[in-house]
Amino acid sequence: MTHWTDQGLGGRLAALLHAAWHRLRVLLAGRGGPPPTGPEPPSRKPGDTPTPPGFLNAVAEAEQKTPLPPPPPPMPDEDDPKYADDPAAYQRDKQQAEAAASAFAEAAKRRGAAVGAVVSDWLGTAPYVMLQELLDQPRDRMPVFKPAVGPVIVMRHPEVIRCLERTDLFTVDPYAAEMARATDDPSKHPGAYSHFMLGTDNDALYRPDDVLLRRVVARSDGPMLAALAREEAERCTRGARESGTGEIDVVKTLGKFVPLRIVADYLGVPFSESGQPSVLPGLRGGDPFPLDTDLLDVFSFRKIQQGLVPTSDDLYGWVKDAFRNIFNNFNPASPLFQEFRERGLIATEYLSAYIHALIRCYKARLMAGEPVPDTMLTRLLRLQLQVSRGEGETLGQDLAALLGAPLPEGELARRLSDSMVRSNVFGTVVGAVVNPQEATGRMADSMLRLQEGHYRVLNDATYQQAVHWASVAEDTVEYPRSLETLRKYALEALRLQPQGEVLLRRCAKDNTELGVPIRQGTPVFVAYAAAMRDPGVIAEPLAFDITRDERLAEYLADRERHMEAPQSQLYLQHGYGRHKCLGRYASEVTLLESLRALLRLGALERRSPLQMDAQNLYAESLRVGWS
Ligand code: HEM
Question: Which residues line ligand 1 (CB under 6 A)?
């Protein structure tokens, strides 16, 4: 076993993750960055020695500046006969070996931080230049990018798919810690679960939740989702028309309110504008409410003393703050770390208190036989009620058939407890706003690029054709085809301008699955954005073509995913394999309906670039005019 992997791993891993996370937009993540073709490498600091441009040269330079000493010798064995009469020699050799190991570990830590910083810089400023450079390397020499010390970057299509499939080797563990904050406090509720599906690859934890959650957020909801998304998207464009400005900010309207509508009316976590009646009896938007004692018994509130019925701004702010703390706040050295952590924790507490209040409210109504809206939250409560009334036998049998074995006694009730309903709804809501918002902005930006002639167009996939399909009326024979075509436009636009570039995994055991040895503990950046433009697999990858083969593949279609649509191996924006986006149906429909409503406004004209926030993490604005 080489020494660097075992020594100082924790420190190295932490340093690498810190360096890389600022850019990483995972589950739920996106980021800014230049256009795919923008050849801008990271800026050089004054006084730095010039090096040939390029990511690999920058890595080589970082490696030269952080040399590694020779690998330390093995630890001496006290029982070695050579020490039999010379214990002092054993002590001396042991001290030397320990010193060498420690020097090596320190050097490896410095090297890891330096390489991690280069990766982070390039991901943050010129991701596509970097990924293209990696794709351009001879395949036999570089199946994946793997420095001697530092994170692995998987950029080629076959390896990206393989990596996402092998959840036994490459796990989502790096997401786990911050996700646990929305679960019960184990000191108050021993034995409580502290996972969310995107933070675990432990089969025993993941699979039952997978079956339950994909039953209540399901493919069959397509028509309901389409109606919601259309109504909200058209409300946004109507509002823009009525404003008289002749301009719409895609990110601030469609990108924000269509996802919030899905959160409200599909996931079951609505907002109420200030002073407007809310679903909680007697409470209005902006009203405080006391924290429930049942919740206080299991969950620790450290930041807030009372709950709040959220307005749209509150709910949006909570989701964004919680998302940022979970996925984009991993560098304690950052000046904003404390503020983002604090805001994330406050948001997590408000959102948890509110979801709990909704659970109480709907549960009471369900038990009284009163009608409730059909949402993810109430569907979970119905299942809970079924099980608590001893009517869960069929559900239990279903799960046993899909999972291949019955759940342990009482497990179904545990998975459907108030705590699990709360944290599962929390995790899903947190994934359902920030990513869709940026994806909507990116998709619209990409469509404007198509209009502006940035892409080579194949098979008549022109902007004008998209405008035509958006204008097709509902009562015509062309209508179903128009929706399918617009869906392809949305996905192709997002393929060329995705809302993120990499997913994060951690290598769980030493393996050579991706063609090179990768050691346990190594952070792995899975560059799905590069895979979607890998010329080895995707023909003319930089051209805009809505007739591409989506390369549909069944995933666990004979087991727990039997109700799921096959997964595309071309459009990877929603991930692939086990952790394929739970909101994939909601999200495709959101993108399609937002695109349709936007194109129906009139002849569009870009009024601004897609603008990101100060940290280059979240989409803030994209102004589009029409005539
Ligand atoms: C355009 C919008 C969206 C995009 C681009 C997107 C993207 C993604 C991606 C890339 C993943 C996989 C993460 C990984 O493997 O590391 C994912 C997972 C997930 N997404 Fe989405 N998402 C979107 C919308 C939504 C919505 C609307 C919801 C909720 C209804 C949602 C809930 C989730 C959840 C719960 C997971 C974890 C699934 C699992 O671990 O099995 N997402 N999403």
Answer: 26-28, 172, 197-198, 217, 262, 427-428, 431-432, 435-436, 439, 499, 503, 573-575, 578-579, 581-583, 586-587, 591
- Rounded Cα distance, 49 and 27, in Å: 38
Residue 292 CA to residue 240 CA, distance in Å, equals 41
Q: Could you tell me the pLDDT band of residue 52, with boundaries at 50, 70 and 90?
A: low
Nearest CA to ligand 1 atom 30: 583
Q: Are 63 and 111 a contacting pair, CB within 8 Å?
A: yes
Residue 286 pLDDT exceeds 60: yes
Query: Taking the model in full, what pTM does it have?
Result: 0.90
Q: Distance between CA atoms of 95 and 467, rounded to whole angstroms?
A: 74
Spell out where 510-560 has E strands. 523-526, 552-553
Contacts 24+ apart (CB under 8 A), 227-232: 228/261, 228/262, 228/265, 228/266, 229/258, 229/261, 229/262, 229/586, 229/589, 229/590, 229/592, 229/593, 229/594, 230/593, 230/596, 230/597, 231/261, 232/257, 232/258, 232/261, 232/593
Task: Give residue 389's identity as a one-letter amino acid code.
Answer: R
Helices 203-216 & 418-431, crossing angle to 10 degrees? 70
What value, to the nearest 5°, has the Cα angle with vertex 116 and ends 112 and 119?
145
Q: How many Å is the maximal CA-CA distance in the chain? A: 97
Best CA proximity match to 416, nearest among 122, 126, 208: 208
Pairing of strands 611-612, 619-621: antiparallel
503-507 vs 523-526, strand pairing mode: antiparallel
Which SS3 state, helix, strand or coil, does residue 382 take? Answer: helix
Task: Please name the residue whose Cα sits nearest to atom 2 of ligand 1.
Answer: 436
- Residue 618, CA distances (Å) to 23, 93, 177, 433, 538 in order: 11, 54, 22, 11, 29
pLDDT tier for residue 7 given thresholds of 50, 70 and 90 = very low
Q: What separation in Å is there between the alpha carbon of 82 and the centre of ligand 1?
A: 60
Q: What is the pLDDT of residue 422?
A: 98
Mean pLDDT of 423-437: 97
pLDDT in tens, 53-82: 899 999 999 999 999 999 899 999 999 999
Rounded Cα distance, 260 and 586, in Å: 12
Q: How far is Cα 502 from Cα 160, in angstroms, rounded to an integer?
A: 10
| The 3-state secondary structure of 229-288, one letter per residue | HHHHHHHHHHHHHHHCCCEEECCCCHHHHHHHHHHHHHHCCCCCCECCECCCCCCEECCE
Q: Give the total residue count for the chain.
A: 627
Q: Who contacts 137 (Cβ-Cβ below 8 Å, separation ≥6)?
A: 56
Q: How many angstroms does the Cα of residue 436 sit away from the middle of ligand 1? A: 9
Is-contact 305 288, C-beta < 8 A?
no
User: Do the Cβ atoms of 29 and 499 come closer than 8 Å?
Assistant: yes
Cα 421 → chain centroid: 21
